[in-house]
C-alpha cells in the first residue's frame, strides 16, 4: 500500500503491519501458528532457508518465545523481523566497521 507521501522505509513498515494482519485471518490481533507457518513459507522463503521445514519454523517460534499452537502477537512477530533484519545487516556489513546498537 504505497503512499506518495511516504518514504520507502515508511512503506516498508506499513507493509510489515499489513502482511501481519493479512496473515492473521481468524483474528487480526494475533496470528495462529498455522497462519504464521504459512506466512513464513510464502513471504520469507528467501531469508528463512528451508521455510517449509516444520523443524525450522519451530526453531523460529522458540527464538520468538512462542510455544507451538500458541497465537503470535505482533510483538512476537516483530522479534522475527528483528532477527531477520540483523541477519541481513550482518551479511551486508561483513567488512563494515559500524556497529549495530
UniProtKB/TrEMBL annotation:
Organism annotation: Erpetoichthys calabaricus (Rope fish)
SMART domains membership: S_100 (SM01394)
MF annotations from Gene Ontology: calcium ion binding; calcium-dependent protein binding
A Pfam family annotated for this UniProt entry: S_100
Name of the molecule in the record: S100/CaBP-9k-type calcium binding subdomain domain-containing protein
Cited InterPro entries: EF-hand-dom_pair, S100_Ca-bd_sub
Top-rank lineage group of the source organism: Eukaryota
Gene3D superfamilies with a match to the protein in the record: EF-hand (1.10.238.10)
GO cellular component labels: extracellular space; perinuclear region of cytoplasm
PANTHER family linked to this entry: PROTEIN S100-A14, S100 CALCIUM-BINDING PROTEIN
Residues covered by the S100/CaBP-9k-type calcium binding subdomain domain: 9-49
Amino acid at each position: 500500500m504505497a503512499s506518495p507521501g511516504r518514504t520507502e522505509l515508511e512503506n516498508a513498515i506499513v507493509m510489515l503491519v499489513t502482511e501481519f494482519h493479512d496473515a492473521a485471518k481468524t483474528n487480526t490481533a494475533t496470528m495462529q501458528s498455522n497462519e504464521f507457518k504459512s506466512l513464513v513459507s510464502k513471504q520469507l522463503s528467501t531469508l528463512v532457508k528451508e521455510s517449509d521445514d516444520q523443524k525450522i519454523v519451530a526453531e523460529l517460534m522458540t527464538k520468538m518465545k512462542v510455544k507451538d499452537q500458541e497465537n503470535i502477537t505482533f510483538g512476537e512477530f516483530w522479534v522475527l523481523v528483528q532477527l531477520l533484519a540483523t541477519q541481513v545487516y550482518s551479511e551486508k556489513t561483513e567488512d563494515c566497521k559500524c556497529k549495530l546498537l
